[in-house]
Design brief:
Immunoglobulin-like, flat, 5-stranded mixed β-sheet, 2 helices
């Protein structure tokens, strides 16, 4: 009786490949339908987004001036921001001023300052300089915002100007006093500890 019962325990059930094949096809069908739905929704969203944007009727104007921005110079407690504006157009530009956006260190508030050029009127291919001195502890950054000719903003291009000169550090000579001891001993050893500054 034991022998007949043992044979029944080790009998493998017969399985068909059909359920596995159906499950694989169903997974593939669901994945394909999800991907198609995602693509359709994405195209619909892109179309509605573009339709909601106003049509761009502004033309890109050629720059009338080139602003050469020098790196900020730190001297003492002052920061000097400056550069050159070159008239690249064929017309005369008058009442020129550069607008800078300054960020205060203390509260990160942004303020805009208008710096007049010297000279304020430029013929074609002439240059003028702008310069602003600030206390270094008051402002953390400066950014060029606009070039104005009176109340009107002008199109401009920018270029890198003079680099800040390298800072020179004074060489310091540090003399370390040698503790009294024998000539061949180490300065600091477990037997003779010494404080190193």
């Amino acid at each position: 009786m034991i022998e007949s019962h043992e044979n029944e325990l080790f009998v493998e059930p017969k399985s068909s490949a059909a359920p596995k094949l159906l499950a694989g096809l169903a997974a593939l069908l669901i994945t394909a339908s999800l991907f198609a739905g995602y693509t359709l929704l994405r195209k619909r969203h892109a179309g509605s987004f573009l339709a909601s944007q106003p049509a761009s009727t502004t033309e890109v104007k050629p720059p009338k001036a080139l602003i050469i921005i020098d790196e900020a110079l730190l001297q003492g407690g002052k920061t000097t921001i400056g550069g050159i504006v070159r008239n690249t157009s064929s017309e005369k530009l008058e009442e020129l001023a550069v607008e800078l956006e300054l960020r205060r260190r203390q509260d990160a508030v942004v303020e805009t300052r208008s710096i007049p050029l010297s000279p304020a009127s430029l013929e074609s291919q002439q240059e003028a300089r702008y310069l602003l001195e600030l206390k270094a502890q008051d402002y953390s950054s400066a950014r060029l915002v606009a070039l104005k000719a009176g109340p009107n903003a002008l199109a401009y291009a920018t270029a890198q100007g003079q680099k800040r000169p390298l800072e020179r550090l004074e060489p310091k000579t540090i003399i370390v006093g040698r503790p009294s001891g024998k000539g061949g001993e180490f300065l600091n050893s477990p037997d003779n500890p010494a404080r190193v500054p």
